[in-house]
């Protein structure tokens, strides 16, 4: 099969984006990586180190950036909105420097304002960011959330209004997180659940937009609305849906990245090994 999915992980970058990140990736057998280029719980916008950037570019594996968790284009706070714009712009610029294929951003929450008000902000502020991305820059990947708290997008069908507001921009893509989708009510563990969900995703955004999978099992049952990741096969999703996901034609060749619990390399190495087995058998 020519369309083998790289299996990798979100990797810690202590010691340097490439020095630390690629060392961790090698320890766990990751074939693709996702990194933070800023404190995930802050608004600081650090400069890159050119030598590290070059080393990561030269690594020859798919690289992705996850934007900090505070980013929310639906926020009624003008301060949060301004910082969200600056942060995503920073991640996109850093992404180009490290040769990232995509920058993942959470679809956000309306918090206390109306859905339409929040979505107008998405259009007004995300569309110009998409237009700024040079042709050889990363895609901006929307990641639907687990639901609750006035989330703008949880079910895959909720991506439709995002693609409408953002005019199906050529630099717009999707990151599908299995734990989020399961928590939002897509029963991936039911017979045909993966096929139904991915078919609905493709019906909503069209072919070629799904660019990345976050492969996480879920501690909580389907439709819980809770976003608590579990190691592959140890949660409520279980192993078989991941095997199904590798076999859906719309997922061919797309990297699978784990964001599962465990600080030591051992649980991550096991998750990667499990996913490779499900992919290859
Ligand atoms: Zn995720």
TrEMBL record:
EC number: 3.1.21.2
UniProt binding sites for Zn(2+) 1: 66, 106, 143
Cofactor, how bound (note): Binds 3 Zn(2+) ions.
SMART domains the record matches: AP2Ec (SM00518)
Record-listed Zn(2+) 2 binding positions: 143, 177, 214, 259
Alphabetized UniProt keyword annotations: DNA damage, DNA repair, Endonuclease, Hydrolase, Metal-binding, Nuclease, Zinc
EC primary class: hydrolase
Entry's family note: Belongs to the AP endonuclease 2 family.
Function: Endonuclease IV plays a role in DNA repair. It cleaves phosphodiester bonds at apurinic or apyrimidinic (AP) sites, generating a 3'-hydroxyl group and a 5'-terminal sugar phosphate.
Protein name: Probable endonuclease 4
Lineage of origin: Bacteria, Bacillati, Actinomycetota, Actinomycetes, Streptosporangiales
Gene that specifies this protein: nfo
């Amino acid at each position: 099969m020519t369309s083998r999915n790289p299996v990798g992980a979100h990797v810690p970058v202590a010691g340097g984006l490439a020095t630390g990140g690629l060392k961790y990736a090698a320890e766990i057998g990751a074939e693709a990586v996702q990194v933070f280029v800023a404190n995930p719980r802050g608004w600081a916008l650090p400069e890159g180190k050119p030598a590290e950037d070059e080393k990561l570019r030269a690594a020859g594996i798919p690289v992705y950036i996850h934007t900090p968790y505070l980013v929310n284009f639906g926020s009624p706070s003008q301060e949060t909105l301004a910082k969200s714009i600056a942060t995503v712009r920073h991640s996109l610029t850093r992404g180009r420097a490290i040769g990232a294929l995509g920058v993942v951003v959470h679809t956000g929450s309306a918090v206390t304002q109306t859905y339409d008000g929040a979505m107008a902000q998405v259009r007004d502020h995300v569309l110009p960011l998409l237009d700024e991305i040079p042709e050889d820059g990363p895609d901006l990947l929307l990641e639907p959330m687990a639901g609750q708290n006035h989330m703008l997008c949880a079910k895959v069908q909720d991506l439709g209004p995002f693609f409408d507001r953002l005019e199906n921009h050529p630099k717009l893509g999707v990151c599908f997180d299995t734990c989020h989708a399961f928590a939002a009510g897509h029963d991936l563990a039911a017979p045909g659940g993966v096929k139904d969900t991915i078919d609905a995703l493709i019906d909503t955004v069209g072919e070629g937009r799904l660019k990345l999978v976050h492969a996480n099992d879920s501690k909580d049952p389907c439709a819980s609305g809770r976003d608590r990741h579990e190691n592959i096969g140890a949660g409520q999703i279980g192993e078989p849906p991941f095997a199904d996901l590798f076999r859906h034609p719309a997922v061919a060749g797309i990297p699978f990245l784990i964001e599962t619990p465990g600080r030591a390399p051992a649980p991550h190495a096991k998750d990667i090994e499990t996913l490779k087995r499900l992919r290859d058998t």
